[in-house]
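For the sake of clarity, the format in which proteins appear in this thesis is described at this point. The fold follows as a row of integers, each naming the local backbone shape at the matching residue. One such record is shown here in full, so that the layout can be seen directly:
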Amino acid sequence: MKLSPAQKQTRALVQAAAAVCEDKKGLNTRILALDPADSGLSDFFLVTSATNERQAVAIADEIELRLKRDFGVYPNSVEGRRHGEWILLDYVDFVVHVFLSERRAFYDIERLRKSARPLTPAEFDAELKTALKEKTRAVRTRAPVKARAASAKPAAKSATRTKKLAKRAAAAKKPAKKAAPRRKAAAAKKKSARPSAKTTRRSR
């Protein structure tokens, strides 16, 4: 199962929201993987139950807080928080439904979405782990090819470096050769400047 980065992000958010439901003792938590033809804009419904209004509000508040804190994501809209009987948090790509138990039985949202595939949080986690393992295998099969290309680059760099060093060494030797004739010319000038012994004797 190949997932795009956006799909992985959505699944991570649903996974985090489902974990909140488990932490806050939500009952019968289910993730509905919606059929693309029937889902409209959303990919998943996260459905959980609470025993009273206070617990329902606590679950919804904690989901909103954790997704904001850990992912920087805010719900597009929130409905039903005042009464706490059915709280809906719309994150566009997935929607969270926190019901009171009797309200969930009355509306029976799972039955309304017959084409949806119901998953427990554990099954949802297993699917996500499988997708990540497949991606890791694909990356590892590509890695040896990239490693060969990377090892070839340092060899080419070292060859160009040795060429540069050889050119510098050759350039450094050239001035030394030119300096030798200059020294000979200076020595000749000094000799010509000294009076010979014969001329000094004659002058006496």
